[in-house]
Write a structure and sequence with these properties.
The longest helix has 13 residues, at 135-147. The protein has 184 residues and is an alpha+beta fold. It has 5 helices and 7 strands. Bound molecules: coenzyme A (COA). Residues 40, 42-43, 94-97, 102-108, 134-137, 139-140, 143 line the site of coenzyme A.
């Protein structure tokens, strides 16, 4: 069956702090998340199946922001997971805020709410990757680190030529810690 996905940008709502709720996603959110990602370049679009798995299997480490009346496209989304090889790390895969809601603190609010979940209290650090030219993303994670007095380090991880065969800019690994005080 063909899925009809309207363009997210057209249906995005302005951000209102008080009437925007944050919650864990569920599989039913998959198509709406897929739409939001598609309307948020330069994010990789991945597949709808990928978004369904994120929303179902990684709900505890992902977060969705939506208007209280639940009408329209979600306002924001963070997918994350705990890497099997790094059980004390929250790896943030993608962050997307609907165009109409950007620059008003929603990205920061979602990050803070995610790491404040009791189930994630034992995590020591946050990691993500960012391309050098994504100013909004750098500003978001730098602000997040600054607010909690955490260190932020960066190093090239996936290289343009070696890992992306020249088809994608180098992704820099960003590490922020400690997340909740204590040893890094
Ligand atoms: C990156 C993104 C998630 C930020 O979300 P947001 O809700 O707009 O961010 P916030 O309002 O919480 O702002 C966080 C910081 O980013 C800064 N910022 C926001 N948009 C910016 C822009 N276009 N250029 C530079 N800085 C920007 C804010 O000024 C703030 O920094 P400050 O407090 O030091 O001034 C959003 O711009 C987006 O969805 N972009 C497209 C997808 C993307 O690139 N995702 C990130 C890669 S995973």
């Amino acid at each position: 069956m063909a899925l009809s996905l309207a363009t997210g940008a057209a249906r995005a709502r302005p951000y209102d702090h008080d009437s925007t709720t944050l919650r864990e996603p569920c599989a039913g959110d998959g198509p709406a998340i897929h739409e939001l990602i598609a309307a948020s370049p330069p994010l990789d679009r991945n597949s709808l199946y990928c978004n369904l798995l994120q929303a179902r299997d990684f709900a505890a480490t992902s977060i969705l922001a939506e208007a209280a009346d639940k009408a329209g496209t979600p306002l924001g989304w963070i997918s994350g997971y705990v890497p099997p090889t790094e059980p004390q790390t929250l790896f943030v895969w993608q962050v997307a805020v609907a165009a109409a809601a950007r620059g008003q603190g929603l990205g920061l609010r979602m990050l803070n709410a995610l790491v404040a979940r009791p189930a994630l209290a034992s995590l020591r650090r946050l990691r993500t990757t960012i391309t050098a030219d994504n100013a909004a993303s750098w500003a978001l994670f730098e602000h997040f680190a600054r607010d909690r007095g955490a260190h932020l380090t960066r190093e090239p991880l996936f290289l343009k030529d070696r890992h992306f065969a020249g088809r994608h800019e180098t992704e820099h690994l960003v590490t922020i810690g400690p997340l909740h005080g204590g040893a890094r």
